[in-house]
Design brief:
mainly beta, single chain, about 10% helix, 5-stranded mixed β-barrel, OB fold (Dihydrolipoamide Acetyltransferase, E2P), 2 helices, globular
Length: about 130
Amino acid sequence: MADRRTLPGIHANIIGKAHEIRVPERGPRILCVQVTHGKDKKTGNFKPSSFIDVKVFDSRGEMMDRQNPKKGDLLDIKAWAATDEWTSKDGQKMRKLVWTLDSFEVVERYLDRQARRDPAGDITVDEDDIPF
């Protein structure tokens, strides 16, 4: 059993794309969010993405169900951090930073972004205007 310790004052506003929602048989749902780090100014290539797992408990899971996020939807997530500590099977002390959902909103649906494409197949929004 993991021991959870809330880290005081560590709250985050995460802007990212829904990547995956895992619903285990027991325990909280896990919302996996892809956070892009923008483009490299020198090369113009996108920097590697990070993936953040956010645990979703109780009524917040019902809130998430109502908004029904799908893979690729742009999300605005408010979450708080805690550490989970446990002892592994071989007796080693383990620790992991865990994010727990406070609230979230679907900012833009993936399909809505796709519908804004012009006839050439390019998105009409300039990617430099996107803040992530």
